[in-house]
Amino acid sequence: MSTELPVKDKSGGRTVIKISPFKSAIRHTDPHRHNGYFELIYLTAGEGVHVIDGRRYSVQPPVLFVIRRDQVHCWELSAPGHGYVLIVRREFVDGLTDGRLRSMFASISAHNCLLLEPSATVDRLWEVLLDELGPAKDEVPELSEWALKTLLGKMIEVAAPGPKQMRETGGLYDSFMHLLGDGHAIKRTVSHYANLLHTTPQNLNNACRKAADRSATEVLGEFLMVEARRLLLYTNGTVAEISFALDFKDPSHFVKYFKRATGRTPQAFRKE
Fold first, then answer.
1. Rounded to a whole number, what is the distance in angstroms from the first to the last CA of the chain?
2. pTM
3. DSSP string, 79-99
4. What is the tens place of the pLDDT at every residue in 10-23?
5. Domains along the chain?
6. For residue 41, which of 63, 15, 57, 58 has the smallest C-alpha distance?
7. What's the alpha-carbon Rg for the chain, to the nearest Å?
8. Do 91 and 26 touch, CB atoms closer than 8 A?
């Protein structure tokens, strides 16, 4: 299966964390992905649409967009965007000794788009980070880590009320999401991931319900459907190839699963 999709690296090589102003010249970009890091994009101005894994999100500042590793995204802006882009490599998050900060990253990375209430404090904290990390450094000053922790906490606090309001996450749930997004082959059973996490499916299910109000099966199913849409939209793999990549033994079972979830067959979804 071919996945000839442009890969952009804006992280400065092996720099673990980097911040820069959002480029106001951006209007329309081709679909592309970032390998090995994720982005937090905070916009205080701008109009248009941000497409992430085939889903269209209206740009309604102040807004935070999260682009996880290997997600496909592009911009369709009708008015200049202003704000900041924070690029974080996994090495930085994995090396954190502050469990609270690690949990904040996991909470925020569970969302593609977060509408925020206007906050002068959030704006100022982004400015502090830009001053601290601008030029990008492999070593993160202590003030930067404090400012980052304060910033994430404040954005969680001012997230606009709604069905996707930010929630606290627990360690087991965080680890489950980490496994799903680590680039390894997807498996369709909760027991597979429970075994990798040295726990039981029941414990994993309880952790998911506590952190995300969804069962482990629902979390896994949602992730699988995101991957299915991404592969159908941005690769030229056949439906059979995609079904095998998603751990379906029979392509017909994948077609039924996809149609049950979306109301359309994979072929119809791809054509639309």
1. 21
2. 0.64
3. EEEEEEEEEEEHHHHHT---H
4. 555 456 888 999 99
5. 17-157 (2.60.120.280), 171-271 (1.10.10.60)
6. 63
7. 19
8. no
